[in-house]
Amino acid sequence: MTQAPHLSNTPEPDWADRMEQTVLDSALELAPRLGWNGRMVRQACAANDLSEGDQELLLPNGPRDLAALLWRRHDEQALAALGDPDGLKIRERIAKAVSTRLEVAAADAEAEKRLSGFLALPTNADLVLSLTWGTADALWRWAGDTATDWNHYSKRTILSGILIPAMTLRLFDGKDASDAFVAARIENVMTFEKWKAGVDFDAPIRKATELLSRLRYPART
After folding, report:
1. Cα(75)–Cα(128) distance, rounded to whole angstroms?
2. Average pLDDT over residues 102-109
3. Of the candidates 29, 32, 36, which has an alpha carbon nearest to the alpha carbon of residue 65?
4. Cα separation of 144 and 93, whole Å?
5. Considering 61, 92, 144, 160, which has the largest number of Cβ atoms within 10 A of its Cβ?
6. Average pLDDT over residues 188-215
């Protein structure tokens, strides 16, 4: 395929990247009517003159690949819309980050509703965990989190547990319901963070190390 000449100094995405996004646009139009499934993927590809062979190369996992593409598009759109977090407390940063991510997804509400049903299938649990973790990580990084110890994982685990029910509430019950849910959960997160700050989690490790040291090198009498 002959590519159009570059019109600027910005490199043009390769064909596969461009076509993935084009097929995703078609999928967003088809999903409300067809659902999020293999049939929808085939029609979205056909709408862009892709053969079944092309589809297999571009989207080998079919609707799972398109689900990941849409999820990551929404992540990118949310981060672009968030701006600078300076001047906001950590609680406000997380609330704003989650709210913005929910509103971005709500812009594609009808397709997202179909996608939520697809992702609820047990066979897609691994995909949901991976995508949600990626979102939680991106939002915490935007909020300024630099933790590299076990806090890095606990924060993302907790936020991942907030995102899925919050998204479901936003799509099916509206913004007020999701905002109330998120506010309550963030309060729980902040309470947990305060409790954690007063606990010495390394103490058991230090005690075990000291015990092993004494057993190996007993004090001389």
Report:
1. 14
2. 98
3. 36
4. 9
5. 160
6. 54
